[in-house]
Amino acid sequence: MSHQPSPTPGVTKRLCSWIHALSLDDVPEAVKTRAKYLILDGLCCALVGAHLPWVEKAAKAVFAMEPEGNCTVWGYNKKLGALAATLLNSTEIQSFELDDWHALAPVHSNSILLPPLLAAAGQKKASTTAKFDGKSLLLSTIVGYETGPRVGLCLYGGHMLTRGWHSGTTFGHAASAAAVCKLLELPVDAIEDALGMACTQACGLMSAQFGSDVKRMQHGFAARNGLFAALMAESGYVGIKNVFEEPYGGFLSTFGQNSGKEPPYLVDELTKGLGEVWQSDNIRVKSHASMAGTHCTIDTVAQLQNEYPDKLSSLENISSIGIEMSEAAFKHGGWKAQRPLSALGAQMSCAYVAAVQLIDRQVSPQEFHHDLLDRDHLWDLIDKTECFHTPELGEKYEQRVTIAFKDGSTVAKTLAAPWDVNPGLSNEEILEKFRRFTDGIVEAQRRDAIERLVLGLEKVEDITVLEELLARPTRNPID
């Protein structure tokens, strides 16, 4: 086995060269504009999540074990070291299943990118007085939006969920490292070192979805580890070279083992269409406070409620509910929910959210207050629900819901995708979500200042101003 440098750069080097060379002028205006709205959505999720009970539990533990540092923990008026602050801030964004995801290669990009980028900026300003402007943050975030999904597409995207990997935490280490390297303006070889160090830390088990607190933190591991890799590379520490295409122990060859696909992985997806096909076009923003695979369930039930209002006005007449879905959605959200269930487990269960939609006619943060998780009439519906893997429905989002009644009648509806996938939320709808979900969480003046700053990023001279707005305490949305 030869480890001599190839005369033709492989995909890892080509990706690193593209990251290094990319300028904001290379990015289409529509992509830059969309990125600002996506960033705003990520911060919305952090503001909503900062003081949820499971985030406060994490913050208390980390504050006890970590010394004070230079980087802001959002919503707490406290500062920790860059790595610890990144971990907690990422946990805030991922805390309530409200954050973005990539429709083809599931990864929650903002939770992986915004915390390490702002932590790196805060750390550098404190130690060297260097300042990073809004253009740098915007460009670095776009680099991350491109990198994470491309890594995922190499491994057949959502197929990683089917295999039991937490796909976003597996794909996300490289995205975090790439974004921070761009912010720090590292050379190509250092970017390659950072990606090699990030990828050797990548993992994440999807069994975390069954009620654990750590599901909320796993993207934080990717964010923190990517930041660590970039800072180590900046110092001259050498990482794995050619980490994606290396045949023995490389990222793709190892995670592609026993994939059941032929070929086991798609190495060319890493760089295909760089600078022409923008992966941010496939980043989706959530309209419901639950795992993305449950959204088609919610929207299908909602359509049935609209089409059959009389039949669904008396829920006690329902005898059974059947939910048919693709393999990835079934394994991710089709499991049998058991009483009692934590808020996390509830947000990951198609049967649970179907019952919530039938009863409350919405799936928002308020529906996951601990007093509402164990309602008898809710669990009566869940116990009547069965989820099925139906192969002919396809591999992505398509679902069919069939509701049977005690009089022998049935109603059914099939949707190809939830509306936040197709057509997806517009920029105006993302802004409306930001205002609606932060109402009562932060004061209006502060909310408006964050909105103006993010949507005008190109004019911001020092992005740590954003952290000052994020630092002050927020309210718990389910208190």
Q: Give the second-level CATH assignment, the architecture of the largest domain.
A: Orthogonal Bundle
Runs in which pLDDT lies below 50 for 5 or more consecutive residues are none
The biggest sheet amounts to: 4 strands, mixed
Order of helices and strands: HHHEEHEHHHHHHHEHEHHHHEEEHHHH
InterPro entries: MmgE/PrpD_sf (IPR036148), MmgE/PrpD_sf_1 (IPR042183), MmgE_PrpD (IPR005656), MmgE_PrpD_C (IPR045337), MmgE_PrpD_N (IPR045336)
Family: Belongs to the PrpD family.
Protein name: MmgE/PrpD
Organism: Penicillium cataractarum
Structure in words:
This protein has 479 residues and is α+β, with helices and mostly antiparallel strands. It has two domains: 322 residues, 2-methylcitrate dehydratase PrpD; 130 residues, 60s Ribosomal Protein L30, Chain: A (2-Layer Sandwich), CATH 3.30.1330.120. 49% of the residues lie in helices and 8% in strands. It is built from 20 helices and eight strands. Strands 6-5-7-8 form a four-stranded mixed beta sheet. Strands 1-2 form a two-stranded antiparallel sheet. A two-stranded antiparallel ribbon has the order 3-4. Helix 5 runs parallel beside helix 8. The radius of gyration is 22 Å and the shape is globular. It starts with 10 loop residues before the first helix and ends in an 8-residue tail after the last helix.
List keywords for this structure.
479 residues; 2-methylcitrate dehydratase PrpD; 60s Ribosomal Protein L30, Chain: A; 4-stranded mixed sheet; 49% helix; 8% strand; globular
